[in-house]
Amino acid sequence: KNQVEQSPQSLIILEGKNCTLQCNYTVSPFSNLRWYKQDTGRGPVSLTIMTFSENTKSNGRYTATLDADTKQSSLHITASQLSDSASYICVVSVSHNFNKFYFGSGTKLNVKP
Amino acid sequence: SAVISQKPSRDICQRGTSLTIQCQVDSQVTMMFWYRQQPGQSLTLIATANQGSEATYESGFVIDKFPISRPNLTFSTLTVSNMSPEDSSIYLCSVGIQGRLFFGSGTQLSVL
After folding, report:
1. Which of B48, B100, B106 minimises the CB distance to A43?
2. Under 8 Å between Cβ of B32 and A63
3. Which pLDDT does position A11 carry in this prediction?
4. Sites in chain B below the pLDDT cut of 50
């Protein structure tokens, strides 16, 4: 069964600290994995996209990793800011159907001053 | 990439009424998707809107409750009909382009 699981479900950290969010998937055949940031009441915005051959990709203070063998991805946030408070959603797509996407339930991050 | 304009951004509606959400894309796309996100939950696909044909609904969603129009390759509407408080959610339109998903800014709906 194609599934995407994220952990932790929620996380509270102090401003300036680092954190790592996890995404495990069983989706096959894998095409790509994307991390989205969703501010409260808004639509998700893409942070990074990882294809099968990519291990690490950075976007400013956000660094995503992908281990295609273990089917795990992580999103590392460095030097967190109050504006990082949001939900982070992991989405995996399959290679045989460009219009099929599998969503994780998200990690709700709260950055406190 | 794609730029998606969705409106309204939020609305407060009375029970029993209907709301139509509009989604405009800055390029022609084959597939448009409508998602619902209930409070504290992840996204659930309502239906896939194909231009020139009936929308394809996911299990648990029916056309009478969520009629969809797709008059051309850049525009779609989703109507939430005969609303109840359980319909209070964020509704999102999105497009898929070569395996990449782009979202509108969402419509936050509250039903009283």
Report:
1. B106
2. no
3. 97
4. none
Distance CA(B76)–CA(A3), nearest Å, equals 29
Supply the pLDDT for residue A10. Answer: 95
- For chain A positions 49-78, those within 8 Å of chain B (CB to CB) are 49
Are residues B89 and B103 in contact, defined by beta-carbon separation less than 8 angstroms? no
Percent of chain A with pLDDT over 70: 99
H/E stretch holding B4: strand B4-7
Residue B1 has a pLDDT of 77
User: Which residue from B minimizes the CA distance to A98?
Assistant: B99
Interface test with A, best of B6, B34, B36, B42 (most A CBs within 10 A): B42
Q: Do the beta carbons of residue A79 and residue A18 sit within 8 Å? A: yes
Beta strands in A39-85 (DSSP E): 45-51, 56-59, 62-67, 72-77
Q: How far does A46 lie from chain B, in Å, by closest CA? A: 8
